[in-house]
Amino acid sequence: MADFLPMTDTPRDLETSPPQRRSLLDLHRDELVSWLAEQGQPKFRAAQILRWVYQQRAMSFGEMTDLPAKLRQRMSEDFDLFTADVEIEQVSHDGTEKLLLRLRDGGEIECVLLRDGPRRSICVSSQVGCAMGCVFCASGLDGVKRNLTRGEIMEQMLRLQRRLPADERLSHIVMMGMGEPLANLDNVLATLDIARDADGLGISPRRITISTVGLPPAIDRLARHGVPYNLAVSLHAPNDELRNRLVPVNVKVGIDKILTAADRYFSISGRRLTYEYVLLGGVNDSMQQAHELVRLLRGRSALLNVIPYNPVAGLPYKTPSTGAITQFREALEQGGVNVQFRTRKGSDIDAACGQLRRNRGMLDESQLPLA
Ligand code: SAH
C-alpha cells in the first residue's frame, strides 16, 4: 500500500480552511455597536447598517455605500450577511415562491412567499426537521436535527423580502414552516422582535401567526411574553384516541390541556385563536368526527381552519373528495363553528412544509404531488 502514497504527504493540520465568519443576523444590536466601537466607529453606524439590511435589502456589505470603504471591508472579513445557500427556488403559477436553503452545517430548511391580493405573506421554518412526529407531515419524517438560530430564521424572511419588487413590502408572517416554533421559542421570539420593530421589518404582531402542535407550558410562556401574536393550534382530530395516532406527541399532552392553555392565551392576548385541521380522506373527515369537533369548539372564540391535505410522496394519506369536503364543511357550519376552508396555494411546487426537501431527489415535474 505504501507504494501508492505520494512522496510528500501534506499533514492534515497544514490544510487551510477559510475562517468561519460570524453571522451578522445573529448579532444583537448592542453587540454590533460594541464591534463598531472596537473599529473606532460611532454608534450611528449601527442604524445605517440595519437600514441596509432590513429596509434597503442589501445582499452584501459592499452595497452599503454610505459606510466608509474600510469599514465595509472589515465587515466582510468578520461577518457574513447571509450564511445559507439557496439550493432550489420554485415559482408557482399562482405567484407562490419557495426556497430550499442549505445551512452552513448542511441542514436543509424551506420557506415560502405567498401572494394573495395585496398580502405578501411568508411561511418560515424554526427547526431543521421536527420532533413532533405528525404521521402525515413530510417535515418530521427523519426527526429533528437542531433548532435554527435567530440569524437563520431571519435570513429566510430577508431572502423572501428581496424577491419582492421595491415598492412591495412583506405584510404577514406565519411560523408554519418546518419545525415546532414553540420548541425553539427563545430564538423565534427574538427574531420576531426584530420582525415587528420599526427599524426591522415593521410588521405588526397582529399580522404574525405562531403555529403550534400544542405544547401547554410553552403556550403559557408565549402568553407571558405579552406580545399579541396570533396563535394557531394544529388540532387535526376531535378526540385523543385519533389525535394520539396522527400527532404522537399528543399522548403526553391531551386535547383538554391544549384547549385550556389556548383559552388562557386568548384571555391574556385578546387574539382570536385558530385551530388547524388537516383533512385526511377516510381518516378524520367523517360526519361523526365533524359532530365531535362541533361539540369541542362550539362556544369557543376560535376559528377552525380546515386545510385539505397536500399529499406527500411515499405517505398513504389522501385529500378527501370534493363531496366529502363539502359535507364536512356543512356539518361544521350547521353546528355553529366559525370555519374557514383554506384554498391551497403553491400546490404545484411542494409548498406544504417539508415537501421540497423530501422531493428534491425527484424534481422531475411529473413526479411532483400536483393537486
Ligand atoms: N409544528 C407546527 C408548525 C409547522 S406545520 C404545527 O404543528 O402547527 C404547519 C401546519 O401544516 C400544521 O398544521 C401541520 O399539521 C400542517 N401540515 C403538515 N403537513 C401537511 C400537508 N402535507 N398538507 C397539509 N397540511 C400539512
UniProtKB/TrEMBL annotation:
Cofactor names = [4Fe-4S] cluster
Q: Which Pfam families match?
A: Radical_SAM (PF04055), RlmN_N (PF21016)
On whether Coiled coil is a keyword of this UniProt record, the answer is no
In terms of domain of life, where is this protein from? Bacteria
Per its record, the protein catalyses: adenosine(2503) in 23S rRNA + 2 reduced [2Fe-2S]-[ferredoxin] + 2 S-adenosyl-L-methionine = 2-methyladenosine(2503) in 23S rRNA + 5'-deoxyadenosine + L-methionine + 2 oxidized [2Fe-2S]-[ferredoxin] + S-adenosyl-L-homocysteine; adenosine(37) in tRNA + 2 reduced [2Fe-2S]-[ferredoxin] + 2 S-adenosyl-L-methionine = 2-methyladenosine(37) in tRNA + 5'-deoxyadenosine + L-methionine + 2 oxidized [2Fe-2S]-[ferredoxin] + S-adenosyl-L-homocysteine
Q: Does the keyword Transferase apply?
A: yes
Its principal location? cytoplasm
Q: What does this protein do?
A: Specifically methylates position 2 of adenine 2503 in 23S rRNA and position 2 of adenine 37 in tRNAs.
Name of the molecule in the record: Probable dual-specificity RNA methyltransferase RlmN
